[in-house]
Structure formats: structure tokens, C-alpha cells
Amino acid sequence: MVTVPIKALETHAARALQTASTACVHSVFTSGMNLVLDTGTWLFLGMEREKKLPYEMQVEEGPWQSLRENVHPHMTFTQQGNRLVCNAEELRLDVSKAELHAVPFMQEEKKPDVSLPTLEFFLSVVEERGEENGLEINSLGFIERYLAKMPMTHPLEKQLAHLLEHCLTGEVNENDFRFLMGRGKGLTPSGDDLLIGWLAVDSATALFGDGFRSAIARLARTGVTTDVSKNALLHAVDHLYPSDVTATVRASLREEQRELKDAINSVLATGHTSGADTLFGILTGLVVLRKQTDWRKAQ
Hints:
Layout: E1 2-5, E2 8-10, H1 11-18, E3 22-28, E4 32-37, E5 42-47, E6 56-59, H2 61-68, E7 76-80, E8 83-86, E9 91-94, E10 99-101, H3 116-129, H4 139-148, H5 155-169, H6 190-205, H7 211-220, H8 227-237, H9 243-254, H10 257-268, H11 274-298
Helix pairs in contact: 3-10, 3-11, 6-8, 6-9, 6-11, 7-8, 9-10, 9-11, 10-11
């Protein structure tokens, strides 16, 4: 039997494993795979890296490549002590020596604000990379029109601008997000990634109204998007994000340009357009925050 040692284990994943009996492989990628526990909790198992995810297990590259060649969707592992065992494929995942680490909940900043120079720097880093978001919206054009209250040129831009204004009041329900959630291709559609960006900004700033997070959670549970994306959205509703998403928001609010650039580049490396879509959500959320700050100062 081939034993694959788990190198690192996120604390939420460790707690989830304590109450589970089996884990079923849902999907396999180049750098990782999704597991669904019999309790309904989802875990991600992937190669060791600096970026951390909630509910994640990490293995070194060599063992992962060996594991990847032998796993397939629907394969089931049974928990036996500190090991997940698949007798049919003679595979064993050993978590007994895994190093525990925590992906912390994103906390609200004491004085949430973002400066115009920081927004300009954020946008310049994204523009320099030339990464396009999956919604096919020009970030700079949208932001300029939104701040200047100019007419939007794209139907989706009009919907986004309208939704942002409603989110500020908190007077939203799940139907307001239907045009966006599940929109796009892949396991995490572009519209969902954008929403995770908005949720991240809200976690750190309490920008949007009380109904914002609950409306997204209710809609995500109705099956309008993929299972993988639903879980990412629900983690975000609970203030849990990939470490580089948290770092992007924090560095923006704290005006730490070096850290911000590193975090943005890390997020951009996610998926085909997922990183760019998430950053578009963070950036537009920060723009709304700046607009609200200017409005309050003018009162």
C-alpha cells in the first residue's frame, strides 16, 4: 500500500476530519483535488505552497504527483485513526505528522479607509499584468464611469453599478444576485469570484448593509452555482478566505504597497480568470469604500 504523508493541515480541516468516517474524491486538478466528507464538509488537498486555504491539506510535490496518478473522482477513502485509507487502490493518506496551521477569520479593520494613491497603485499592478477578468468588463473604464456617475456602456456594468448601490443600504435579497452568481465558466464562475472579492472587502470594513451576506448565503445554497463555488462563497460569508485574498485587502487598507503587489500577483495566479475576477471584486469594493468616505467627509 502506498502511503502519502500529509505535510500541513489547516485547523478547520483537522476539526472536520475528527467527526468524519469517509472522504470521497469530487474532482482532481493539476495541483490538487477536492474531497467531500460524509458530514458534507469539503476539503482541498494540494501541493505545499505559501498560499493557504481554509479547510486544506497540503502534501509535498513528489508525493502529490504520485497520488494524482492514482486518484479519480468518486474514489472513497475510509478514516482509520490518523489515516484515510482506500483499500481498492491501495492508497493511504497519513495525517499523523501533519503540521497544523490556521487560516484566520478576516477581522474588521479599526479605521477602514483606502487612499486614492493606493487604488491607483492597485489598478496599475493589475493592468501591468494584462490579466482580463472573465466578465469581460474593463476595470478602469468601469471604475471611472462609476465614480463620475457616467452612463455605463455595457448591460452587465449597469447591473453591477445598480447592485453596488443596493448593497450599501443592505436592502437586498437573494434575487438581486441571480444575474451574477453562477455567471461564467469553470468550477468557480467569474460572478462568484467577484462576489468573494466584495465579501472580503465587507469583512474588513463592514461596508455593505446587514442583508448583504445573508442574501448571498441563501442563494448559494439553492444550487444556482457549482458545488465547489458554493463552498467557497459560504466560507467567505463566514469571513474565511485564501490567505492571499486576505493579504490583498489588508495591504490595501494599510497602504502597504510592497505587500499589496505581492498579494495581487499571488491572487492573479489562481485559475484561468478566477484571480482576476476576485481582484475586480476587491477593487470595486474598495472604490465604493472610497466613494463612501468622500461622501461622509462632505457632510
